[in-house]
Design brief:
heterodimer, A: about 290 residues, mainly alpha, B: about 240 residues, alpha/beta, Rossmann fold, six-stranded mixed β-sheet, four-stranded antiparallel β-sheet
Chain lengths: ~290, ~240
């Protein structure tokens, strides 16, 4: 079967649409994640989603929802999403109300949520079929995207695009210099909370598709590549989305042609693009100023 | 600007204690004092960035921070992220918008270039901030503060550790701006933190000497008299300051 023939397969069409939507959602947020040196946030929130999926799976099994006629109730995502939002709010509060740095706050959340996920998954009898496996959660199954996943990803991407558009100027200003932004009346705390909550939402619904392990790559590598090429933050934002989409399409095609795992292939294509951008960058004629 | 019995503490440590003064519109105030004496905190209280534990600060008869569009702030240039991809013109445009521009409109570009021209930095408009020297950055920040034609300009050590802004250039620019804003609303007010006692003496028409407490406030010839400086700085610094 050729690649062109494969494009008529519904599962590949869903994978393409889901991948492009995830590239848009993670790309819009990834710019701020990279520029604020929050690269660990993607890992932290993806693992929070894992914890939420564990709790969700346990709740579904113990309450008998596993046999529910409503597909959405059988899916642990409806517990993973609010759990991830709570984790994001917890990281935000730890950072704002204590002297802890972002990576410490994220590290605390990371450890606790993974522990919760492992504990609750271990409490589920092995013969129960949840429709989603632990391996899928860890490494993703973009070719196994269901219609329900697709609707959730579409809704969350639209929300992320709308809120990012509304907050872009404020978030960018606060990212450049929080004090200066505050002096101009920008509510930088609210802008940061919006960023954390949106990242939690996008990551929770995307992690099911691209996998928890690869989620951080989606959030960081396209933005880091764009940073090497862009002169302004708006250029960086547009480039991040484009790079994310191109990497997704090339990665899916390569994965199909080479018969290798799709999630890993997409990330390796992202990494290849990053390497090319890094190597093609002209050496600085003068160093960045330090004062 | 009105400060009434303002006290600020950071983690229980007193930074400002019972500071009260009134600054009338159109004056040029130099704020002097030793390092750690609360000068930057005083500016941040005026901007509404720091809330006093006691007392209150007001600008334009309203709470501090209520009218950011009427204030031009030139911070110490150490605070921003140098890896941030941005041009000098984008920075100046934040002075017009109060947010970061995704795209600089033609009108904003004209205003921004005018402000950069005023500070002798028009050629820097499309240069990346990370490639600017300290002095060039300070010009861009000054252009950003003046582009909105503020009623008050607050400057936090604008000439410290930079290679270009020769002090008299800066003072000339500020005095020129004050003269230009003579009108129905009156000339703009300038409040500037400086370590340069000579400049404070010759350019400012009011000097505030601060070392956690307000040590002296008044015309330079009174505020900079030796007793208040000796109290604020201690003997050795005082000798240095007088030598200037």
């Amino acid at each position: 079967m050729t690649l062109l023939d494969a494009l008529s397969l519904p599962f590949l069409q869903r994978a393409l649409v889901a991948g492009v939507l995830i590239a848009v959602g993670t790309g819009l947020l990834g710019v701020f994640v990279v520029q604020r040196r929050l690269s660990f946030l993607g890992d932290g929130l993806a693992h929070a989603a894992f914890g939420g999926m564990g709790i969700g799976a346990f709740v579904i099994v113990t309450t008998g929802l596993v046999g529910s006629g409503l597909a959405v109730l059988r899916d642990p995502i409806w517990i993973a999403v609010p759990f991830s939002l709570l984790a994001a709010a917890g990281i935000y509060l730890m950072r704002r109300r204590t002297d802890l740095s972002s990576d410490t706050a994220i590290g605390v959340s990371f450890a606790v949520t993974v522990a919760l996920g492992v504990m609750f998954f271990s409490l589920i009898p092995p013969d129960v079929n949840l429709g989603v496996s632990l391996m899928d959660l860890l490494f993703g199954s973009i070719l196994g995207v269901r219609a329900l996943d697709l609707y959730m990803i579409l809704g969350v991407t639209l929300l992320a695009a709308g809120l990012t558009a509304a907050y872009w100027g404020k978030l960018a200003y606060a990212t450049f210099d929080e004090e200066l932004a505050r002096a101009d009346g920008v509510d930088t705390a609210r802008a940061e909370l919006v960023l954390y909550l949106l990242a939690a939402l996008v990551i929770a619904v995307s992690a099911v598709v691209v996998g928890i392990i690869l989620m951080a790559a989606y959030l960081v590598i396209p933005a880091a590549t764009a940073r090497l090429l862009a002169r302004t933050l708006s250029q960086m934002t547009a480039l991040t989305v484009v790079i994310g989409i191109v990497a997704t399409l090339l990665g899916l095609a390569a994965s199909f042609l080479l018969d290798v795992p799709s999630g890993s292939t997409i990330v390796l294509v992202q990494a290849l693009m990053f390497s090319v951008a890094a190597m093609s960058r002209r050496p600085r004629r003068e160093p960045l100023r330090s004062s | 600007m009105h400060f009434h019995s303002v006290s600020v503490r950071f983690s229980e440590a007193p930074v400002l204690e019972d500071v009260s003064f009134d600054l009338e519109a159109g004056r040029f105030l130099a704020i002097v004092g030793p390092n750690g004496g609360g000068k930057s905190t005083l500016i941040k209280v005026a901007l509404g960035l720091v809330t006093p534990v006691k007392g209150h600060a007001a600008l334009f008869g309203d709470r501090a921070g209520a009218h950011p569009e009427r204030v031009g702030y030139v911070p110490q240039i150490k605070t921003f992220d140098r890896t941030f991809p941005a041009t000098a013109l984008e920075l100046v445009t934040t002075g017009l918008r109060g947010s970061w521009p995704a795209r600089v409109t033609q009108e904003e570009r004209e205003h921004g270039l005018g402000a950069l021209r005023r500070v002798g930095a028009e050629a820097l408009a499309d240069r990346q901030l990370a490639r600017l020297s300290g002095g060039e950055l300070q010009r861009a920040y000054l252009a950003r503060a003046l582009v909105r034609r503020p009623d008050i300009v607050l400057l936090d050590e604008p000439a410290t550790g930079v290679d270009f802004l020769v002090e008299h250039d800066l003072y000339d620019l500020l005095e020129e701006y004050q003269a230009e804003t003579q009108g129905a609303a009156g000339p703009a007010t300038i409040a500037m933190i400086t370590h340069d006692m000579a400049a404070a003496r010759y350019h400012a028409d009011l000097v505030l000497v601060l070392n956690r407490r307000l040590m002296a406030y008044g015309p330079p010839e009174e505020a900079l008299e030796s007793e208040s400086l000796r109290e604020a700085f201690g003997h050795r610094q005082h000798q240095h300051a007088v030598a200037l």
